[in-house]
Automatic annotation (TrEMBL):
This is Alpha/beta hydrolase. It holds the Pfam family Ser_hydrolase. Keywords: Hydrolase. It comes from Aromatoleum diolicum. GO terms for molecular function: hydrolase activity. InterPro entries: AB_hydrolase_fold, RBBP9/YdeN.
Amino acid sequence: MTPPTILIVPGLRDHVEDHWQTLLAKKLPNARSVAPLEHDKLSRAARVAALDQALAEIDGPVVLVAHSAGVMITVHWAQQHSRPIHGALLAAPADLESPFPPGYPTTEALRDNGWLPIPRQPLSFPSIVAASTNDPLGKLEKITELAIAWGSRIENIGAVGHLNPAAGFGDWPGAEDYIRELVGN
């Protein structure tokens, strides 16, 4: 069997050079990333279309590795498309229904751009939600509720903030452990 392609689904800040997803994509020979958008960067529909386009360019099995709003891109995509997915790592989902700290899009802007409500239908593929106990963009209780609704296994990964460079994360070796587990499914 062909090993799954690892498809990185970044959040709204796209490809940050020292982000664990960017570092992971460089490290894994079978990894690709959803291309950054040039226009409509806050459009949910444009983000979902970009994910669908990236998937259309891949033959064979795929494991999705999403972070933050990338998780929401993934769950929105899953409600509209039926392509088989081998599994998904959904890391530090951003709770788009709750107000964000300054410097992030407002709830109104997210609603106006099609992000809300967050889908709560079960995913058609195995998934692991890796959630932080102190993520400023998603309280563990809410992320746990979403994971249950999606049929995902929830993994409490401790006090790691939003699991991004601002929280002290470049490399995140835990991602590779979860990916190995999903590939083995």
